[in-house]
Here is the input.
Amino acid sequence: MKTIKNRNTNGRPAKKPSEKKAYKITVKMATEEYYSLKAKAGLADINRSEFIRQCIRSTAVKQRLTPKMMGYIRQLSGMANNVNQIARTANAAGYQEVHNHCLVMNERLDKVIKRIEDDS
Here is the structure.
């Protein structure tokens, strides 16, 4: 009896392991999200899976703000509130009295901004 060697010589070449799609991910979506995905993939004339793959490849995710950075932002907001109060006082009492307060606030603001820039 004869055995046939290399029976399938025709057809598509085998994919490399790095090209094979071996992972499946299930995502739950609201109705609005699903139809938005479907419409965008349709406009791009690709299937939904390929659309999601392209989104993953081309999107950059921004890092969340650290608690330290949030503290700086809160501190900066408080200082901005103080500057606003100084401006009101200056308008009511006269600008000469408030001048020294403004210089002190400017120095403090510069320090906070420098800390934020150093951490970024």
Remarks:
- The first helix runs from residue 31 to 44.
- The two ends are 75 Å apart (CA to CA).
- The chain has a mean pLDDT of 83.
- The chain has two domains: 24-61, 67-119.
